[in-house]
Amino acid sequence: MLEHQKLMLKNIYQNRNFFVKEIKKSFRLLSKVELTELERWLRIEFSQNYDKEVQQLFLHAK
Question: Could you tell me the residue ranges of all domains in the chain?
Answer without folding.
Answer: 2-61
